[in-house]
Hints:
Number of helices: 18
CATH architecture: Up-down Bundle
CATH class: Mainly Alpha
CATH topology: Amino acid/polyamine transporter I
CATH superfamily: Amino acid/polyamine transporter I
Oligomer: single chain
Number of domains: 1
Structural class: mainly alpha
Distance between the termini: 6 Å
Order of helices and strands: HHHHHHHHHHHHHHHHHH
Amino acid sequence: MTPSHSRPDASDHLKRRIGLRSAVLFNMLEMIGVGPFITLPLVIAAAGYRLSVWAWLLGAVIAVADGLVWAELGAAFPRAGGSYAFLHEIYGAERAGNWLSFLYVWQLSFSAPLSIASGCIGLSSFLAWFWPGLNGGPLVALPALHYANLAAAAACLLVTALLYRNLNSITRLAWVLFAGVMAALIGLIASGFANAAAAGGWHMPVSPAHSAAVAIGGLAQATLIATYDYWGYYNICFLGSEVRRPEKTIPRAILLSVLFVASFYVLMNLAALPSVREAASRAATGAAVHLQLAAEIARSAFGLWAGRLMAALIVWTAFASVFSLLLGYSRVPYAAARDGNYFRVLAAVHPKHGIPHRSLLALGIVAAAFCFFSLQQVITMLVITRILLQFLLQHIGVIVLRFKRPELARPFRMPLYPLPPLIAMAGFIFILVNRSQALGGLALAAGIGLSGTAIYLIRARNKRQWPFVSLPQGAGAGDRG
């Protein structure tokens, strides 16, 4: 049997140029976006001072469990598109896998631009720290429209333009962006500990007494936020057909990126604790408190110039995250279109730069349009849709694949199987049922799923694909083996 990572497929038009360091870089750029800087006081307020660190650790456990699923599948099927390729193989390329992979790309046409837009909206919010006029509106007739929305949309289009070049240039630019990301994290950690030292040394603030039920509920809410902040450790799977030695590079990149980011998040939380007593108590009063927390800590430690520098670095970090998000996700519609399982117009590769430029442009433009929603609306739509129509399908699928195709070459086999997918499923189901306004999010995901299924059935009937064609017994999953 031909190893799955050496089979020719549609994504062979892309060249393998990404090594381990760049793979970890792309993952971390997506993981460390604007999120942790905004949500840090929310995590502390929800869990309390003493349990807040545990929220980041529990979030890391969920990320590792889910990451092991991605690692096994990514090493076995290192192709452009990530989850698209996984679902296609797991559920049968000529059977239900054709439907589920199409459905995944359909929901990604919404969830990927939503994820990109959330970073751009956060970026524009930080810009408003320098130019308060961004919170104003250009049209009296549209009070919900602000200049900040226009700035966010412009950031989306700028990132799209920067990615419209060959992968070597993109990698060099990514390292420049990563330097700013690390400066923001290290600056916040150093500012927090320096501020504590000036106040007589680091100490844990006094926490009010809570019942066990209240403490557990608060920890659960904080873990939900932390889990969202970890998302991105799987970004390299979307670039699978451009990774050198993917059977080793992809698993290592996933696990290393979670380890590095978890260490930074825990240190960031510990550094901020002595400085956030008042900020945490006001965490639910409005976005301005969240936005200014990191800059306020830096200003308290080193002066006004440090506060402004920290705010600028966080803008840089948000931009870098959007850069990595759009880079990875642009490969998914391309891969599906090359297989004939999505809109053919997106299958083109740029003749000079060697990138899927039409897919890139499509996602960038849709993301710019989503920038005119609020941040809360964008995150709510994103989280529910992605868990239901992507993550849970993969967790079930990796178990199904072990039963259906035991002979499959698996360059990386997750340790302690089947615990990782079971732990990941439990964690994500917990997030689903504990989100506020969960029914609205579930209805939205159901609408995306039903509309995508309807479009697939129309296309499948016209193209005589599953379920409108009878297959010989034994056809379907494993046909490519």
